[in-house]
Amino acid sequence: MVDLLRGGRDELLSTLTSAFRREAWITITATDVMAKLTAATVSEFNHAAGIAGILRRQEAARATATQMASEAFADLDSLIGKAKEVVAVISRYQAAQAGATAEEKQADSGDLSAALLNIGFISPVTKETAGTQYHQQLARQLADFLGAGNRGLLQRVGGMMTLPDIYAIFNRARGTQLISPEDLLTVSRMLSALGLGMRLRTFPSGVAVIQSDAYDDAAVGEQLVALAKENALMATSVAAVLHVSLVLAQEHLATAEQAGLLCRDETLEGLRFYPNLFPQYCT
């Protein structure tokens, strides 16, 4: 018994409060705890396992896919709207160009082509729109894309470009209207016959390129000889100087060697090319 007259009130209040919080009158045994845990585990297992669980997972996957598709189409609609605005701007630009001189048209056309290439925009020729003339129209579009003039893409990379490189940048510009490697090879073979200022060329090694008609092997060979007189040439140095890929640099060196302009020196340090001085001693 607690004698409240002699103190102890605070201790009693604290004990009662603690008992109420713990619900000390409810007795929970270890068996009760294990039964609750087992029931929860079985319920969770039944929810995830069996046919019902498979159906729930499939339904969740479908819901996620539907949401992603809705968001993607919303973005696509926005992109199409922006593309229509760009087409309208280009149409107005072409109308303004109608009264320009030939030189102004050529210069501005090069600038416009470069800008469109940078943003990856091109109005693609498709089989649906071109029909039986698909490959012919695609060849003309490819020639326009590469540019046969001095300001064209092909001239800016030395007058030739490998088919894999062209395939990559041309499809990037076409967006979702991709062409197959077979289509690219077919139209590349048509370039010369259509008189588009470029042609398909295959090196003895099997490397296939599209080459500008203005490209001259002799001029490139003379340039390589001049470089070789300063320092021995390697494919990496030629690629850096001529701003071409390593594959094309190797082909340029092999072509100059076959023409008798360069001679090779294979050592443990690598393959180097020097000016061919043997002809002047053989005459």
TrEMBL record:
<dbReference type="InterPro" id="IPR040608">
    <property type="entry name" value="Snf8/Vps36"/>
</dbReference>
<dbReference type="Pfam" id="PF04157">
    <property type="entry name" value="EAP30"/>
</dbReference>
<dbReference type="GO" id="GO:0031902">
    <property type="term" value="C:late endosome membrane"/>
</dbReference>
<comment type="function">
    <text>Component of the ESCRT-II complex (endosomal sorting complex required for transport II), which is required for multivesicular body (MVB) formation and sorting of endosomal cargo proteins into MVBs.</text>
</comment>
<dbReference type="GO" id="GO:0043130">
    <property type="term" value="F:ubiquitin binding"/>
</dbReference>
<comment type="subunit">
    <text>Component of the endosomal sorting complex required for transport II (ESCRT-II).</text>
</comment>
<keyword id="KW-0175">Coiled coil</keyword>
<keyword id="KW-0967">Endosome</keyword>
<keyword id="KW-0963">Cytoplasm</keyword>
<dbReference type="GO" id="GO:0000814">
    <property type="term" value="C:ESCRT II complex"/>
</dbReference>
<keyword id="KW-0813">Transport</keyword>
<protein>
    <recommendedName>
        <fullName>Vacuolar protein-sorting-associated protein 36</fullName>
    </recommendedName>
</protein>
<dbReference type="InterPro" id="IPR037855">
    <property type="entry name" value="Vps36"/>
</dbReference>
<dbReference type="GO" id="GO:0032266">
    <property type="term" value="F:phosphatidylinositol-3-phosphate binding"/>
</dbReference>
<dbReference type="InterPro" id="IPR036388">
    <property type="entry name" value="WH-like_DNA-bd_sf"/>
</dbReference>
<keyword id="KW-0653">Protein transport</keyword>
<dbReference type="GO" id="GO:0043328">
    <property type="term" value="P:protein transport to vacuole involved in ubiquitin-dependent protein catabolic process via the multivesicular body sorting pathway"/>
</dbReference>
<dbReference type="InterPro" id="IPR036390">
    <property type="entry name" value="WH_DNA-bd_sf"/>
</dbReference>
<comment type="similarity">
    <text>Belongs to the VPS36 family.</text>
</comment>
